[in-house]
Design a protein that fits this description.
The chain is of the alpha+beta class. It is built from 8 helices and 8 strands. α1 packs antiparallel against α2 and α6 packs antiparallel against α8. The protein starts with a helix and ends with a helix.
Length: 275
């Protein structure tokens, strides 16, 4: 072990001596040739300056070639070490990098903003903060059919936005087209159920039609979107021979859609099953 260490030290010392000799020779050449050019009286100043610049370039090239030739083994080891270090850094920071680029993608695409209600991979909530690494939601739930805060915050890594679908429930901002479902028995009472629902929807939502129409017209001019029909609609599906599904769509303020839905459902239950 000691012999190898002594041999290594001897090799390094020889290389240092060689480099010192190269530096001395190049410096001597620079001094002699440069001095001769400066003393020359048959050359213009521009020509002297050009030759001096070329001389410096040639001597610098020789110096760096000498370093490469003399220290080839050491440079190879250094490159291998740096490559291994870079690979380790990439592996160690893979998740961090994914989060950062996910944040850049999210902000450049304007897929959602603070205050919007979004859903990602089954996680649903209102956006209360976003950075280049994470997005924080106030959770809404449970499930996708309710619109109440659970009291919990959810921190989502931005890497999810690179590979997962983002549903923005607040794309229309101030007003939303909100849908919910009600199941009833498949009998002749379905027409009365539809009539009650339409009446209740108009009762709770008609005051928003004018403001919502003005807002959507503005959005249409800006984004060239087709302006939907804002009045309440009911679509009927036959689930089986005993059950019908009424799909109700209303126009409501984004912040009030859950409360209005509950008012409509409760009034419907009172009138349809009791009245």
């Amino acid at each position: 072990m000691q012999i190898n260490q002594e041999l290594f030290n001897s090799v390094i010392m020889n290389k240092l001596i060689i480099m010192l000799v190269v530096v001395v020779i190049l410096s001597f050449l620079r001094l002699v040739i440069g001095g001769a050019l400066k003393k020359s009286r048959n050359m213009s100043m521009d020509k002297k300056r050009r030759y001096l610049v070329n001389l410096n370039s040639v001597l610098s090239f020789i110096f760096f070639c000498s370093i490469f030739i003399v220290w080839t083994d050491e440079l190879r080891s250094l490159v291998i070490s740096l490559t291994a270090l870079l690979v380790a850094l990439v592996i160690a920071t893979k998740e961090l990098s994914s989060n950062f680029f996910g944040g850049v993608f999210k902000m450049t695409q304007n897929s959602f903003h603070v205050g919007d209600r979004i859903e990602v991979e089954g996680i649903r909530g209102d956006v209360i903060d976003r950075t280049f690494l994470t997005t924080t939601l106030m959770e809404i739930g449970p499930g996708t059919k309710t619109h109440q805060l659970t009291g919990r915050s959810v921190v989502i890594p931005n890497s999810m936005f690179l590979s997962k679908t983002v549903i923005n429930e607040s794309y229309l901002k101030n007003f939303v087209l909100h849908s919910f479902k009600i199941s009833i028995a498949n009998n002749k009472e379905w027409e009365r159920a539809e009539e009650i629902l339409l009446e209740r929807c108009h009762y709770y939502c008609s005051e928003f039609f004018e403001a919502a129409q003005a807002y959507l017209n503005k959005l249409h001019m800006k984004s060239h979107l087709e302006v939907p029909i804002l009045k309440p609609r009911i679509h009927i599906n036959i689930l089986d021979k005993e059950t019908l599904e009424l799909i109700v769509r209303i126009t409501a303020p984004a912040a009030m859609k859950g409360r209005i839905e509950q008012k409509i459902v409760k009034d419907f239950l009172r009138e349809f099953y009791v009245g």
